[in-house]
Write a structure and sequence with these properties.
alpha+beta, five-stranded antiparallel β-sheet, two-stranded antiparallel ribbon, 4 helices, 9 strands
Length: about 180
């Protein structure tokens, strides 16, 4: 028999009124070709946007909390007259963190700036990247890859493809280029 059986058995569990349905399932041994198809299908199913988001959910959730924590910084938080981080900067940082998580980048350092802005930083694999989230939530960036610096002024989400290409060396688990 292959797949789900046509019959279902019901029985009453230990709790009064609890019903459980048992669906017998058996599977015939797979041929070598079917086994190979399944072996290649499973990794393909694992590499879905949802699965990638699941893999990065832990760092994204932590990073989102770090960014929200910055909202509690009062004036003069650095004892040199720093301004509080703005809500717009926090919202912009969280939006960009979500984008970075979707690109499969590692978790950045999240650094408050004395002017009320936030910097998201990566310094690894020959890449020095700083994303500046302005006090109004707009994004600018500086990315140095092997000594070649690239500046990105006031980006919106439509302009992220070139930035994504420059940050591709930071990809988790691979050094391959990302495609926009």
């Amino acid at each position: 028999m292959s797949g789900f059986a046509d019959t279902q058995q019901k029985f009453t569990g230990p709790e009064v009124g609890a019903m459980t349905t048992i669906i017998p399932f058996s599977r015939e041994p797979l041929s070598l070709a079917a086994t190979m198809r399944e072996a290649f299908l499973i990794p393909a199913l694992m590499d879905t946007p949802y699965r990638r988001a699941q893999l990065l959910a832990e760092w994204y959730a932590d990073a989102k909390l770090e960014a929200k924590f910055l909202e509690g910084l009062a004036s003069n938080w650095d004892s040199y007259g720093a301004r509080p981080v703005t809500k717009s900067a926090i919202t912009g940082a969280i939006r960009f963190l979500e984008v970075a998580a979707g690109w499969r980048l590692p978790k950045p350092a999240i650094v408050p700036a004395s002017n009320g802005e936030i910097q998201l930083e990566w310094h690894q694999r020959g890449v020095d990247a700083e994303i500046y989230v302005m006090s109004d939530g707009r994004i600018a960036a500086s990315v140095d890859v092997d000594g070649v610096e690239n500046e990105f002024d006031m980006l919106d989400e439509r302009d992220y493809s070139k930035l994504k290409q420059k940050l591709s060396r930071l990809l988790i688990g691979t050094c391959h280029q990302m495609h926009a």
